[in-house]
Amino acid sequence: MKVLVVGNGGREHALLWALSREDPRPELHATRPNPGMAALAEPVDLSPEDVAGVASWADEAEMDLVIVGPEAPLAKGLVDRLSDRGVPAFGPTAAAARIEASKAFAKELMESAGVPTARHRTFRAFSEAEAHIRREGAPVVVKASGLAAGKGAVVCQTVDEAVDAAREMLEADAFGEAGRQVVVEEYMEGEELSVFGVSDGEDVRLLLPSQDHKPVGEGDTGPNTGGMGAYAPLSLATPELLHIIRDRVFRPTLDALRQEGCPFRGLLYAGLMLTDEGPRVVEFNCRFGDPEAQAVLPLLESSLMDLLLPVAVGDRLSEADPRWRAGSALTTVVASEGYPGTYSKGRSVEVPEELEDDRGILVFHAGTGSRDGQLVTAGGRVAAVTGVGRTLQEARDRSLAGAQRFRFEGAYFRRDIGWREFARSEAARP
Fold first, then answer.
1. How far apart are CA 143 and CA 299, in angstroms?
2. N or C: lower Cβ tally within 10 Å for the chain?
3. Nearest to residue 297, comparing CAs of 207, 401, 398, 417?
4. Class for domain 191-312, per CATH?
5. Which CATH number fits domain 119-186: 3.40.630.30, 3.30.1490.20, 3.30.1700.10, 1.10.10.10?
6. Chain segment 196-209, per-residue pLDDT in tens
7. What pTM value is reported for the model?
8. How many CA atoms, within 13 angstroms, populate the side-chain half-sphere of residue 338?
9. Contact (CB, 8 A) for 66 and 48
């Protein structure tokens, strides 16, 4: 079995790690892998966003499966090109990937399907967005409609902040093409939940729920990032709640996409807010979340290939549900100083040899590179350090111990990932 993983970040490293544990182990390849991935896969010197080049290479190399990690190549139609060449690919078509690539499209789809989400309006003209914001008041959320690497949602506590955010997107070109259209939506109170669903276009299998921490600062303060950490499982995600999410969120959304003529085959990610009225959708993504994948995949006991391959070849999902290991996983992202704003690259990274062999600690490289044989920083989120343990406390202790040993100048990480779950545990004590 020959498998190509498209992408070179922490999510893709986690996917390669999970696939490397399959029996028999597949022959793994990856597009321009980061140094951590390079130990697991043969490199393919193509950009993940070179859809024509990747499709051609996968066809000529007779890949049995291509797994597309990031959203950008999905939105650009990589799966469409692979399908045209008869190469099995896990991921949605460009038309189905609009569920993430266009927040305006996603909102319209949810509205037509009756999927619970925030009240919203979509704007292309700043003057109209400003008038709406001043009329509705704050707090409010302003989102770039297009792909913005997880940083296009601005939670605004005042009207002036919201007006400034809309102006930055629509007039100052802060997010380029992604911000030419903005969605202004109500601010929802509650706790967030991330749920992955593997779909064959009709049916869906929900994976272990997790919770992401988007803000850069401890206590969930500061600007949003691509994610500063995650943990799984969480006590709020009861079987009863997951049934509600499957029936009220995933199934009507998948039905609506199929009726639109673009059935969703791949990984549908629902970012949810658990409000007093029940779960409501914050956003959909068309791929595995990052860093949620780094917390969820280490707990998967059954075969990842058995979930992905049927979808890629056009079959229906099997009746077998994924099985999960007992215990918890917690991921701490080690970021460059200044992220999500301006940060330096090329700083030397020290990783003790024994760290990646430590029992219960997994290091997933994200923004790393190599210079003269030395590991260096190459991005804002440099690595995701996952601790796995019998309890969430044990997982956090291991994650933080690993993060402290992944060293470079200006390294920053949050020490409070999972704080809500720990607060719940403390409150439940007699």
1. 32
2. C
3. 207
4. alpha beta
5. 3.30.1490.20
6. 999 999 999 999 99
7. 0.94
8. 9
9. no
Q: Which CATH architecture has domain 328-428?
A: Alpha-Beta Complex (3.90)
The yes or no reply on domain 2-91 and CATH 3.40.50.20 is: yes
DSSP state of 337: T
Neighbours of 60 (CB within 10 A): 10
Q: Which residue do the tokens 């597309």 mark?
A: 68
Amino acid, single-letter form, for residue 126 = F
Tokens 């791949």 belong to which residue?
A: 266
**pLDDT single digits (tens) 290-333:** 999 999 999 999 999 999 999 999 999 977 789 999 999 999 99
Instruction: Find how far residue 96's CA is from the centre of its chain.
Output: 17
Report CA-CA distances (Å) from 261 to 76, 200, 254, 312: 18, 14, 11, 18
How many Cα atoms sit within 13 Å of 372 on the Cβ side? 3
Q: Locate CATH 3.40.50.20 in the chain.
A: 2-91
Please give the pLDDT value at position 430: 67
